[in-house]
Write a structure and sequence with these properties.
The chain has 139 residues and is an alpha+beta fold. Helices cover 22% and strands 38% of the residues. Strands 1, 2, 3, 6, 7 and 9 form a six-stranded mixed sheet that branches. The protein has a three-stranded antiparallel sheet with strand order 4-5-8. The longest helix has 10 residues.
Length: 139
């Protein structure tokens, strides 16, 4: 088979050892304008999470309405300031009992966060794109 016709995922699978290869379940993700959108299920709802290493201080950054659905009942809400590109924004975090599910892997979430003070354009882009939030290396 000519090398140019081998797909990148096939090269990746060939590099895995047999044990891991038999357990691996791959799925597609969206690559949109140099951004990775991961298909995820949270609280029974399918969504996409934008993967951004700049959000690695947070497990899950999301909208206020999703935050309110995911926080643990009665959990205290932390309120603190964060710096985003020279702008001071307000972050709100609380404990959650929900999980993020990626294909056949379910990862418990500890905290969920939303941020106030983002621009109208940022808010609209998140809504229009169908993104359920952002995640980074922490999750």
């Amino acid at each position: 088979m000519p090398k140019h016709s081998i797909k990148k995922w096939q090269i990746f699978l060939r590099a895995l050892n047999d044990t891991l290869r038999n357990k691996a379940q791959l799925t597609s993700f969206k690559w949109k304008e140099r951004r990775i959108l991961l298909p995820t299920t949270i609280n029974g709802e399918k969504t996409s999470l934008y993967f951004d290493t700049g959000t690695s201080a947070f497990e899950l950054l999301t909208s206020k309405s999703i935050f309110e659905r995911l926080i643990r009942h009665g959990a205290p809400i932390e309120n603190y300031r964060v710096n985003s590109w020279g702008n001071t924004l307000q972050a709100f975090s609380a404990l959650t009992d929900h999980r993020a599910e990626f294909v056949n892997v379910s990862i418990p979430l500890k905290k969920v966060t939303y941020i106030e003070g983002t621009s109208l354009v940022q808010n609209l882009l998140m809504r229009i794109s169908g993104m359920g939030g952002m995640t980074g290396n922490k999750l």
